[in-house]
Amino acid sequence: SKKDGVQFVSNVDRVNYTLQQLTHAANKDVGKFITREVKNKIKNRTKRLAKNTQYWARSRALDLQVGFKAGGLYGIFQELGTQKIPRVGALRDTVNENIPMIVMIQSQYLSGLEDEARALSMINEEDEEGSG
Questions:
Q1: Handedness of CA 31, 36, 40, 45 (dihedral sign)
Q2: Are 73 and 12 in contact (CB under 8 A)?
């Protein structure tokens, strides 16, 4: 829009897009980190469950899930425990123990808003599934 010969340009859409993409990129890095830490915690106990630990970072929903793929279906019993299986709690404990690191990873990306060129270099728009 123009007023008194001065043109005003709105960057709201571009900033929103950049913020969404930085959030997605941060989620992917947190997913990789947590998945790797969980695998290290449980690999000596059960290699099968470690192989089936994965993260899902979705760009449209802007969410992150870390859990066990179908091949590790029994993992929920080890995570939560049953009358016959002791609680391992690898997912929950790993996240709780690493909250400062998660905050640091997220902060690195979101501070990228200060410098548009830096922000754009951090962005990859695709959804990702990964095993760390």
A1: positive
A2: no
